[in-house]
Design a protein that fits this description.
Elements: H1 6-26, E1 39-44, H2 49-57, E2 63-69, H3 73-85, E3 91-93, H4 96-100, E4 107-110, H5 114-126, E5 130-133, H6 141-154, E6 158-160, H7 168-178, E7 185-193, H8 214-218, H9 244-248, H10 250-261, E8 269-275, E9 288-293, E10 300-305, E11 324-330, E12 333-338, E13 341-345, E14 351-356, H11 363-373, H12 383-401, E15 404-405, H13 411-414, H14 422-434, E16 445-446, E17 450-453, E18 458-459, H15 467-473
Parallel strand pairs: 1-2, 1-4, 2-3, 4-5, 5-6, 7-10
Antiparallel strand pairs: 7-11, 8-9, 8-16, 8-17, 9-10, 11-12, 12-13, 13-14, 15-16, 17-18
Helix pairs in contact: 5-6, 6-12, 10-12
Length: 489
């Protein structure tokens, strides 16, 4: 296949975007897939999770992996070659707009960086294709709602990559919670205690690796110079492209917490605090964070830690044995677990029941089954659920980003109106001290307690230029053509 030169790609980018958008909006939906027809799939973004998806899809029954798409031509050629060695021939695309014009693609799996997830999902719907959108399904709250609207308007099957929804263990737990096995729910705790080292510092803009179409890589985000050592993966730790670890790993645990509580909207109140501690590097997002999603019936408390249990250790802290997972607390006991299962405990901490499952291995099959049935209600994780859980992470980050520096020793005093946060503050203080941080010199950002209008997915503004005013300004991103999410899908 003829390779696209960097200069040629950049010169035609805007024109191609306009033409592609017009083509996508004008195309009729694809013909229904019969019971004996193979679902023809393409994977967009093939570095890590996308490669996992491609390897899974190439062996699934009733599926044909027909195309790969990535803006990194070196990686793309490598992945195409790997499949060819396995006897799987796929088309090769650099520009997702060209892929979506292909008539031999029924559905796409979106595994790009976060800032591209929603736009590709919307474009897929407009092109008459179904979509499996990796988590988080959106980079901001506003665009996530547009993806939900696109799926409904165009009648497409759009699933979120929150695979715990297909975990048998957690489905069993949900039924037991609804049946009252935990009694009245008190709170749900989510944890992302995951080691994150410094990404280092650079003196200025860095060169773009060869054969990467950087304009297309940036897509909806600003076309800014690269100011970190690694283009790949470390984009998670910058606000223009990532959503911190609460929106990276934490979205999985946040989704389970909300699911178990039975909440289907944003909470009426959110607050977050934390910081980037233990080193100084180019990243923007916190490596230590606490968020309160203050639902009336029972709140969600979420904690992120990127530093080890103590300075020099090679292991992480835990809460009731959980490092990456959730603890659902009720008056009659609690559940502690992670993907694949866990244990139900009585109030004294005695094990009562074990839950075991596949950890969501059947999630992609669930999506494909819904593609065949054309029933979005068959999805374990329909896009609305993915959007709502993603939004919990996003509004938490908005509170954090509007925070003011507060001495660590004063943090608990500042939060006296929320006693349920006291335990999280005390454990965070002890955690940072164990990593050698002087409490008198450590100043986390304490975000404002933001009131939310759940039905409208926006914040309450009570005065000119108050916290709610600035928070509403962060509900959507500054975008650029031809990669802007449309106001109306």
């Amino acid at each position: 296949m003829k390779r696209i030169s960097r200069r040629g790609f950049l010169a035609t980018s805007v024109a191609a975007g306009v033409a592609a958008r017009a083509t996508l909006r004008g195309r009729a939906s694809a013909a229904p897939i019969g019971a004996n027809d193979a679902v023809r799939l393409a994977v967009v973004g093939v570095r890590s999770k996308g490669q996992d998806h491609a390897n899974q899809l190439k062996t699934m029954k009733g599926v044909r992996l027909v195309a790969l798409c990535d803006v990194d031509e070196t990686l793309l050629d490598q992945r195409v070659g790997e499949l060819a060695k396995d006897g799987v021939q796929v088309a090769r695309y650099v520009d997702v707009r060209k892929l979506l014009e292909a008539r031999d693609v029924d559905a796409v799996v979106v595994a790009t960086p976060n800032h591209w997830h929603t736009l590709i999902g919307i474009w897929a719907c407009q092109a008459g294709k179904d979509a499996y959108v990796e988590k988080p399904v959106a980079h901001n709250v506003w665009e996530g709602r547009r993806l939900v609207e696109a799926a409904a308007k165009y009648g497409r099957i759009v699933a979120a990559g929150t695979q715990s929804r297909s975990d048998e263990a957690l489905n069993d737990l949900k039924q037991d919670i609804r049946a009252g096995k935990l009694g009245k729910l008190i709170r749900a705790r989510g944890f992302c205690y995951k080691r994150r080292d410094s990404i280092g510092r650079v003196p200025g803009p860095q060169p773009i690796p060869a054969l990467i179409h950087y304009d297309l890589w940036c897509g909806p985000s600003p076309l800014d110079p690269l100011r970190r050592k690694e283009l790949h993966y470390d984009w998670h730790w910058f606000w223009n492209t990532g959503n911190a670890d609460i929106g990276n790993q934490g979205i999985h645990e946040m989704d389970v917490c909300r699911w178990m509580l039975g909440e289907d909207k944003l909470p009426p109140r959110v607050q977050s605090f934390g910081g980037r501690f233990g080193y100084v590097d180019d990243a923007q997002v916190p490596n230590t964070q606490v968020a309160l999603l203050d639902y009336a019936r029972a709140p969600i408390l979420f904690e992120v830690r990127g530093l080890p249990a103590r300075a020099g250790a090679d292991h992480m802290d835990h809460y009731k044995g959980i490092r990456i997972g959730y603890v659902i607390e009720g008056e009659a006991g609690y559940f502690a677990g992670a993907a694949g299962g866990g244990w139900l405990f009585d109030p004294a901490g005695k094990k009562v029941k074990q839950y075991s499952g596949t950890g969501g291995e059947k999630h992609m099959q669930n999506f494909l089954d819904a593609v065949r049935s054309r029933r979005s209600q068959d999805l374990a994780a329909p896009i609305l659920e993915g959007h709502t859980s993603t939004a919990l992470c996003l509004v938490s980050n908005i509170s954090y980003r509007l925070g003011t520096e507060t001495p660590l020793a004063e943090l608990k005093t500042k939060l006296t109106s929320r006693p349920e946060l006291a335990d999280s503050v005390e454990r965070m203080q002890a955690h940072l001290a164990a990593n050698g941080l002087d409490p008198s010199q450590t100043r986390p950002l304490l975000g404002p307690a933001l009131e939310v209008l759940p039905d409208e997915e926006r914040f309450v503004t009570r005065a000119d230029y108050d916290a709610g005013y600035f928070a509403n300004g962060l509900l959507r991103d500054r975008q650029r053509e031809p990669f802007a999410v449309p106001e109306k899908v």
